[in-house]
Amino acid sequence: MEPEVLQNPPWYIEPKEGESISHYFGRFRRHEAVCVSSPGTLSKAVGIGPVLARWEKFRFNPFPSQKELEAIGKLIGLDADRIAQMLPSKGEKMKLEPIRLCAVCYAEQAYHRLEWQFQSTVGCDRHKLRLLSECPFCKERFAIPALWEQGECNKCHTPFRSMKKRQKAY
């Protein structure tokens, strides 16, 4: 007898290395096989209350429970441990605002990194650049990563990848 091969559901989306939970769930809700447009609707479908909306804003107080992670994981086809990797470690403090990004990293791979929101993060260690917290062209603060549908400033529509020339060294 051959072992059963588990198939991912049609709405399965593979998380990217170091991706923030906010960005991941925004990508998930925009997937063509998903008909859920808000974090509250998804949370209610799983029976975990409005927690996903808080998580997308990096508000982890109280910290997500194993039960919540398992419930959402079951619905989206992702292991609870893999979802936990998109969360900060329990001792890591988050910078809720402003949302930050390294435009060079984003140009290389277009997704929000969890580490950019750590209070302990000064800049991008990989590129030795300060993180941007607003559009360098119009000064609009960045929206939460769940809303980064086009990877651009919400006000002037400048692509994040083109902001890399405006980042300063640290």
UniProtKB/TrEMBL annotation:
<dbReference type="Pfam" id="PF06527">
    <property type="entry name" value="TniQ"/>
</dbReference>
<protein>
    <recommendedName>
        <fullName>TniQ domain-containing protein</fullName>
    </recommendedName>
</protein>
<dbReference type="InterPro" id="IPR009492">
    <property type="entry name" value="TniQ"/>
</dbReference>
<feature type="domain" description="TniQ">
    <location>
        <begin position="12"/>
        <end position="131"/>
    </location>
</feature>
